[in-house]
Amino acid sequence: MLNLRRRRAVRVASAVLVVVLFLFLGACAKNPVTGEDQLVFMSESRELALGNAYYPQVIQLNWGTPPEDHQLQNYVSDVGWNLADVSHRPNLPWRFTVVNSSQINAFALPGGKVCITRGLITKMSSEDELAGVLGHEIGHVTARHAVSSFTRRVILAGALLGLSLALTGTDYGTAALAGAGLTGGLMMLGYSRDQERQADELGYAYMTKAGYNPKAMVKTFELFLSLRNSEPSLIQGWLSTHPPPHERIAAARKRARSSPAGERSIKTEMFQRSLARQKSLARAYVAMDQGDALAKKRQWSQVAEQYRKAISLYPKEGMFYTRLGMAQMEQGEEAPALASAEQGARLSNGTYYPNLILGIVATANRKYSLAVDAHRKAAEILPGQVINNFLLAKAHDKIGPRSSAVLYYRKVVKASPTSDYGKEAAKRLDKLGYR
Ligand SMILES: [Zn+2]
User: Fold this and answer.
1) What CATH topology corresponds to 283-367?
2) DSSP assignment of 220-260, as one string?
3) Which of 174, 204, 287, 301 is 20 to 30 Å from 46 at the Cα level?
4) Exposed, middle or buried by CB within 10 Å (0-12, 13-18, 19+), for 397?
């Protein structure tokens, strides 16, 4: 107990230290939106570097991008640029990506890196609605909200991730999926209510300037409101970080009523064409989501059934096989689990979780060299993940070389000394005589 309290005190102290350091590094800069001086914690070049560094990670933690759909990515990027061009910071290297998560969400990183989930975009019906959401995210970037809260959010997200690993202990498979559910904790910790209101206003300004109808924003908030009742688990994260939809609907209605742009026609044709593929696959993802929900209740045979249904509807989506592999492993079907996990990793080439999970399933099958390959690949795609480095160390521990096991155990201890993984890695290093 005492030990725990001391450790917590140390953690709080180091968090405070980081905040203090950033305060000293902070400097006044003109806010691009208000033109007022604002205390920001980083230069624009640092802001860009941060966005560049975290964007690939955020995409990976949301299961990468939907397979085989470049048309959708190009379309979303075009709509995003229509808005960015008329924003307060048109010269940022903007990027817009649809990530392969069923959660209802959109988020922005410093420097103009924006994501929208497959779950959200497939529930929309017009380009104007999409423009409302992207405009809002662009607003967070142009008003530099992402910058002022980013450091705080990274600290909190780090703390949360450590917590989830500690809670799940050595149940690696579940821990990996819990991590997948986290979908990058740093987005889930949101902005202040005032920042959200300002982003709504900027989103309105950008979308009307770019030729869209602001009534679409009302429709989007109404969508959030109805999803709150119909699919609470998919929208929970978003609701916990945003103002209540009622309040935003009222404000958006007022803006749309007084705006001449409220008479414009709503653009649906190109939207429907670009979304046709995803909408035709929606049933497959619904089956996957139902499997995920049942997995929380550990009803593994029904879980596997849902994932099989998803595969039958869309056999080219790797993450369906990866999930089926996890469910089969939970049922003790280790050899079929390996076949599924291999197929999942093959189809989702270049995505983190399928490789992590293949490594876990290969280890359960005592195929350690396959496990090493899979964890190495996962580490290349998304470096620095404690759980993956720990499992890579363990697989090397089985088949050598010992120097590689030591290298990765040391990375784990360094990155996360107080987690279960860190403690177990330290113990193993002691035993091997490397401490
Ligand atoms: Zn927001």
Assistant:
1) 1.25.40
2) HHHHHHHHHHH-HHHHHHHHHTS--HHHHHHHHHHHHHT-G
3) 204
4) middle
CA of 200 to the centre of ligand 1 (A): 8
- Are the C-beta atoms of 25 and 50 separated by less than 8 Å? no
| pLDDT for position 163 | 38
Q: At what angle do helices 127-142 and 145-168 cross, to 10 degrees?
A: 100
Could you say which residues of the chain have pLDDT below 70? 1-30, 34-42, 146-190
What pLDDT does 133 receive?
A: 96
- For residue 140, the CA-to-ligand 1 centroid distance in Å is 7
Instruction: Say which of 47, 127, 129, 137 is annotated catalytic.
Output: 137
pTM of the shown model: 0.84
Give distance in angstroms: CA of 79 to centre of ligand 1. Answer: 18
User: Which residue has 């649906």 as its token pair?
Assistant: 268
Q: Where in the chain is the domain with CATH 1.25.40.10?
A: 283-367
Rounded to the nearest angstrom, the distance between the alpha carbon of 178 and the centre of ligand 1 is 24
Reported as a single tens digit per residue, the pLDDT across 165-177 is 333 333 444 444 4
* Residue 333 annotated in active site: no
